[in-house]
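Run log, item B.
One chain of 337 residues. Sequence copied directly from the ordering sheet:
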Amino acid sequence: MNVIIANKYRDALANLDIEVIKKLEGEFTVDEIIETFKNFFFQKMILDITALKDYKNIKTLQQLSLSLDMDRLILLLDGSPETSDPEYLSDLISMRIYNFTMNVEGVKWLYEHPNSYRDVAQYHQLDTTHETNYINSATPQSQVYPEIKQTTVICFKDITPGAGATTLTYIAKKQLARNYDVVAIEVDKHDFMYFDEDKMYSVSSNELGNTISKYNSAEVVLIDGNTSPVTEALANETIYLLEPSKIQLNKLLARDPKVLENNKNKKVVLNQCMLSNQDISDFEYETGLSVFATIPPLNDQSSDNEALDRFLVKLGFYKQTPLEQGGNKKGLMGLFK
């Protein structure tokens, strides 16, 4: 039996198809959580990090790790700059918190396929050092941990069949390569072979984690996720592509009537989209989805698509535009400046 501690993401976690023996909602101090569960048997604890008071202070998580079994913890992060910081993630790993994710799909995956250190080693700091003072440390000196490679992993997945994840991954890879060191990976298919482009690889779901680790010297890893269930848990950000044509939407709803509801809290992008701003507003109202961005049909022979650059800038890749147009802003995961 499992326990869920939820706050900001309570609605999303309520849809998890697992047996729950105890559920807490709201904000709690780390002492309250420890006191409640230190003698309470459970299989897994799913913790919405926003339910933990002072969670942006890594020592709060450390205190939790000293009192509860971290092998049983699945941590749902909020994607804030603090909890997305490489040093914060590395410290989680140092505390043996290996099962963390930024979306509910990742929670589902980690519940059935818990991480080992090998799965998260790419996020553990390996180069330079920083200091962290540990509560109840055996010595007064700070523990030292190496610096994480600043690799951002972004996954594209189709909601409507053929929404263009493979081609978008290819074009985005070419375009980002003007300013970043980029690797592209497709999962469980071999379509990349037809693009005749370097640094594009085809792997199975089982090989994905090791492949990301292999190329952790790259600044950006783009993933064409296809139908693989593992990609969301391994990516910093997953972009869900939807082609907003009437026939595609009707086919999608006929196959899965709950598909729109299941994607309400995700980053939805309308790909190959020619809708006006008013049409997009109507689409959001009718579907209940929040559209993160729209991308028009792109020329896959070009590496200079202005519309795609606007989308990439919105993701945080500000080198795609001149500095005065946004280069001083903070990007995705706080890694790109």
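Observations after the first pass:
- The first strand starts at residue 2 and ends at 6.
- The radius of gyration is 21 Å.
Flagged for discussion on Thursday.
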